[in-house]
Amino acid sequence: MNHPACTNRTRWLSLALLVCCAGSVFAGTYGKIVGKVVDKRTGEALPLVNVILEGTTIGGSTDLEGRITIISVPPGTYSARASLIGYATQVVTKVVVRADLTTNIQFEMTESAVTLGMEVIVVAERPMINKDETSKTSIISAETFSDLPLTSFQQVIALQAGFVTDASGEMHARGGRSNELVYLVDGVVTRDPMSGGMGTQLDKYAIQELQVLTGGFSAEYGQALSGVVNIVTKEGGSKYSGRIEFESNRLNPSPYHKANALANDYMGVDANGVHKPRVDDKGLLILDIPSAYQKQTLDGTPALFPDVNYLGQLSFVLSGPVPLVPDLKFFATARMENALSTLPWGYNKERETNAKLTYALGNWKFSLADRRFWRAYKLYSHIWKYLPEGYPSREEQTSRDNFTINYFPSTETYYTLNAVYNYRHFRLYTPGRYAIFSNDGLLLESNYVKNSGNQFSQGGDLGDYTENRLGTFIAKLDVTHQLNQYNLLKVGTEVTSYDIKRLDYQQPWNGGFWAYDNFHRSPWEVAAYVQDKLEFSSFLVNVGIRLDYVDVRDKRWVDVTTPGGYKDEVTKLWVVTNEIDTKPFLQVSPRLGIAFPITEATVFYSSYGHFFQRADYTEMYTLRDPSVNAALVGNPGIEPQRTVAFEFGVKQQLSDNYSIDIGAYFKDITNLVGSTYHALFPYAYTIYDNSNYGKVNGIDLTLHKRMSNYFSGSVTYTYSVARGNESDPSEGYLDYRGSTAVLRPKRVFYLDFDRRHVVSGLLNISLPEKFGPELFGIYPFENINTNFVIQIASGLPYTPNTLEDGDQLVVEKNSGRKGGTSQIDMRLERIVKISDVRLSAFLRITNLFDTINPQYVWTATGDPWDGGPITQNTPDRQRNPGNIDVRRSIQVGVRIDL
Fold this sequence. Notes:
Layout: H1 8-20, E1 31-39, E2 50-53, E3 59-61, E4 67-73, E5 76-83, E6 89-97, E7 102-109, E8 119-123, E9 137-141, H2 142-147, H3 153-157, E10 163-165, E11 171-173, E12 181-185, E13 188-190, E14 207-213, E15 227-233, E16 241-248, H4 264-267, E17 312-321, E18 328-340, E19 347-361, E20 364-378, E21 393-410, E22 413-429, E23 435-437, E24 443-446, E25 464-482, E26 487-506, E27 515-521, E28 524-535, E29 540-551, E30 555-557, E31 565-567, E32 574-576, E33 579-581, E34 585-599, E35 602-613, H5 617-621, E36 631-633, E37 641-653, E38 658-680, E39 683-708, E40 711-724, H6 731-735, E41 749-750, E42 757-767, E43 784-793, E44 797-798, E45 802-804, E46 807-809, E47 816-817, E48 821-834, E49 837-846, H7 875-878, E50 889-897
Parallel strand pairs: 1-7, 6-8, 12-15, 36-39
Antiparallel strand pairs: 1-4, 2-3, 2-5, 5-6, 9-14, 10-11, 12-13, 14-15, 16-17, 16-50, 17-18, 18-19, 19-20, 20-21, 21-22, 22-25, 23-24, 25-26, 26-27, 26-28, 28-29, 29-34, 30-33, 31-32, 34-35, 35-37, 37-38, 38-39, 39-40, 40-41, 40-42, 42-43, 43-48, 44-47, 45-46, 48-49, 49-50
């Protein structure tokens, strides 16, 4: 299909947006410091005091009223130095700066006739609550990632208030679908244009700070309906530092890695324990006897460089100045992992590198970041338990190149020019099977074989082949300016262009194929916004407006009930005719957030916003052939998905070390992507449309305790009610198509990811040097850190289904509830310090008590391993280990910090 040319209207609109909005904020990359310097004895303001952050070139001088404002401070912890002739120098230490937030510091300087070498050291008091947050925000620092018994930053996000996980482990923010969460790395969106989400992994040791916004996020954030994850990566410092860490694979044996695990009652054993065929209650031999179970090994898995045959994870971190090049600094990580699934078979192999160069030259700063990620993996499928070679493997490669130029003409203004290229290559295939394609993607030859078997597959393969090649280029130009003492203005624009290639075959048996998809599209998007942050002593306002413009650059049917084309009986391919250009979409989204600091310890906040997100391009471009049996057809004419959200909350500092944040919210969701069945002779197909909608309301609570008396921690509670007509865009296709389809209801139900109650807790216990009793000059309990993660959640809904007298009993969708879940993870670490080197050994246990947590259940019983008394499935087929969440896993590791 030829791509429609960009219209003059599109060109002029894009140019207007770029000219009118001279920049887009490098979202959430910098924080702000404001402060005041006074004479300690008289209380009078001191002008022209030089304030600088030690170890950096960031700083400035106070104005005539003794005020200092610095808006371009990277997140981190600093020491701020104030100096003035005739006064003793004062240093305020432990000044914590957060992205997008304001940190207040105060200097009280003392007159001194002799100032040389005199310094007054003051430790900054870190506030328990941030007064300038106008919506629900969670902030996780780099130190948190090092100590938690979790392996990825996504697991840390899932612990925050407002998040629930579904049966497949996907995260949902405040009742939204899993693809309604947008990720930004160093201020620029990283997203899989086909399926949404981040589409890749990121080394947790490369992260400096992570912010999670689930409330009314401001106008600088777009293409998200439910939440924003803002990641700021680390930069090299003026001193060399490094880390080497190795963590083993699972040490304890998996309960599913036994020969014919869970199958003894099906296969039957004789007196000597030898497996034998089993007969049914009529004495007939059960013919569907699977072959012997084979344990997975690394042998024969795809090779990734370096191709080392070990189990476990090895990580390297190194940063510091580049030799012989003044002011050039680097930060780099490398990670290698080989792991075997705890399920009967499956593997995961990953390689990752991250590198960042930063160079400061006067008021300019240049940054070049490069990331590479490779992964080869195979997921477990129970029906293929005894024939894993017939189930597809997956491979993916992602990269990200980010070049940034920052210009800081003053402490009140900075500019950013940013260019980013993201690439993702994904392939799903069956090893040992092949498909030969022509240059235009047509299938010329295939040796895929249809599987056979009843309870378990005993021959053939699944027969799916998918290959995606996705390129994304993003250009951003931004300006941020502190207009005066009260107004911080952000104005911006960005342009995104995509190059999307997809080739997909499903079950290409000899004599034809069931489904074929091959397309190449190049959509593009433009966004612009204006955001003003007004900060007064009695209230704070975030107000802004955002414009999103999307051109899918494709043709569409005149009407979804009028297919634009016909089936060529010679080539067996769909021939496109009578289609029209898809008009670009333009969405205007106002945003408003207000915070009221009632006292130093109490802040009320409220936000209101209209949020927009285009459909994933898979739902626009996929399978445009309605003649295929049971076709699910893409629709470029899908309109933007919209959410209107309101939030109100209060943050309260309870004491010096405790604070609480309670928020309530309501979301009205419209134009969600769904799918509708059409039976129009001679075609019967389902097409993506905007037929889904929903409503969500809930309460978030976070109780936080900072480190004191050797422990710190937090507890989050999420209460949410998520209702909608359908949980997934393909639900209309799966449940309501064909001649046996029931009437599609037009009312809301509990969504598949409606977890009513979720409680998560973090407990960190840190014992200092020389703690506890001494034994022969040794303190056995010193430098021990213990970290716990506790997760408790009510069950997910499911639709009960049973048979009575041979007739199916129809019940309301999602009217049943699975069992609740609970899990405790632990990490225990012992640290030994030798000069500037820190050595540590650690033990990590996932699911400490080996709790059986159901994820999927048989609809007749609500049980994960029991299909009911009248099921025709064998016990082995019923007892799918994939229906249970992760079992206990014990791992050990060592770490060296330099």
